[in-house]
Amino acid sequence: MIIKDKLKSSTVNEIIEQYPYTESFFEDQKLAVDDQEKTLEEIYAGLTVEEREDVVFDLDQFADSLSSHIKNMQEFLGENDSVVAKLSILAGNNKDGKKENYDKLDIHSGEIISIVGPTGSGKSRLLADIEWTAQGDTPTERQILINDEVPDKKWRFTGGKKLVAQLSQNMNFVMDLSVIEFLNLHAESRLIDNQAEVVERIFNEANRLAGEQFGREAQITSLSGGQSRALMIADTAILSSSPIILIDEIENAGIDREKALELLVGEEKIVLMATHDPILALMGDKRIIINNGGIKNIIDTTAEEKELMQELKVLDKVLTDLRNDLRYGKNLSRISEELAAVKNT
Ligand SMILES: Nc1ncnc2c1ncn2[C@@H]1O[C@H](COP(=O)(O)OP(=O)(O)OP(=O)(O)O)[C@@H](O)[C@H]1O
Predict the structure, then answer these.
(1) Which residues form the ABC transporter domain (predicted)?
(2) Which residues line ligand 1 (CB under 6 A)?
């Protein structure tokens, strides 16, 4: 909360120090500030009638527009948000109009939740309900709460800051920019302090995720599908201020899925992903089972399943190696030999 009276009794230096973006506000307002050590009240008291005519006449109004400027900037920068510690999904109805098989699901920051179910069962619909912060106004009639409260409607509309960032299979760049130009442009729009450092980190992380490396000067339109997704995931994890990430099927994305998830949850975000892939599903702390448009069950990933995941990773590596051998024109050997080779490495 920005208290207007506090602004009035603060010196210009104090205000700029706390809210650096107000410097341009003072310039735009043509407020004659000869001494930045004076408070706004003192400055206003010293203005002649002519000088007052050049700026907002009344100190109260000036403090009002200064505080709304600060509020807008904080929102834009994602500074003003109460942290999303908890996202709750309250039960709605399945496709037959029957109540779902649970009452309330609480998801906490840093948790990964996978969503599984047959084709057409309603996985994407659930992600869409969260993105829309549904309040009984979608086909499922589910309700979404943030920190146990009905979220502000502003979350529904794209602004500088969104509640939810979406990552999907189809991500294409349309701008003609190099990787570094694109990252700098995005970082500039977020007005972060340590831009060069952040851009470098995103670039490095994206390359860690991508199957094939790409350079700083590569044109983003020329990146492969996997490289674009790697770039978008690293960019979303590090630069996006959205506390919730929704992922719709990244299985065939040609990226290191495990590293991608680690990067996303490392930033204390809530991650929900719809998937048909057992490795991805077991990476979740819980999985939501969807059937016929409704949540049928919510299962905690067991210790045994986490162990099984290690075996699945071996299988996955075998398949990846086979794919690569195929691509590079090699003859494929028996899988049992492949499996043994991986196990021995
Ligand atoms: N509870 C519901 N009530 C009414 N319609 C629903 C409900 N849940 C889902 N639907 C609708 O069913 C259709 C299929 O759902 P959706 O696309 O979410 O499935 P999916 O599980 O993501 O499928 P896929 O695995 O093929 O991507 C959509 O049109 C969706 O709006």
Answers:
(1) 84-318
(2) 93-95, 117, 119-125, 139-140, 274, 293-294
- Count of CA atoms in the C-beta half-sphere (13 A) of 328: 5
- Tell me, in angstroms, the distance from the centre of ligand 1 to residue 115's CA: 12
What confidence category does residue 160 fall into, taking pLDDT thresholds of 50, 70 and 90? Answer: very low
Q: Give me 27's structure tokens.
A: 């310039």
What is the number of other CB atoms lying within 10 angstroms of the CB of residue 131?
A: 18
The 10s digit of each residue's pLDDT in 236-248 is 888 877 888 888 8
d(CA 181, CA 179): 6
Q: Are residues 153 and 209 both part of a single domain?
A: yes
Site to probe by mutation for ligand 1, drawn from 115, 116, 125, 277 as the one with most ligand atoms within 8 Å of Cβ, is 125
Count of other CB atoms within 10 angstroms of residue 181:
15
What strands lie across the sheet with 143-146, from one edge to the other?
Answer: 104-108, 86-90, 143-146
92 φ, ψ to 5°?
A: -120, -140
Judge whether residue 67 has pLDDT over 50: yes
pLDDT at 206 over 60: yes
Q: Which domain holds residue 267?
A: 86-301
Output the CA–CA distances (angstroms, integers) from residue 105 to 57, 86, 146, 277, 287, in the order listed.
53, 10, 12, 23, 11
Contacts 24+ apart (CB under 8 A), 227-231: 227/254, 228/171, 228/172, 228/173, 229/167, 229/171, 229/253, 229/254, 229/255, 230/206, 230/255, 230/260, 231/179, 231/182, 231/202, 231/206
Split into its structural domains, the chain has a count of 3
- Domain CATH code at residue 259: 3.40.50.300
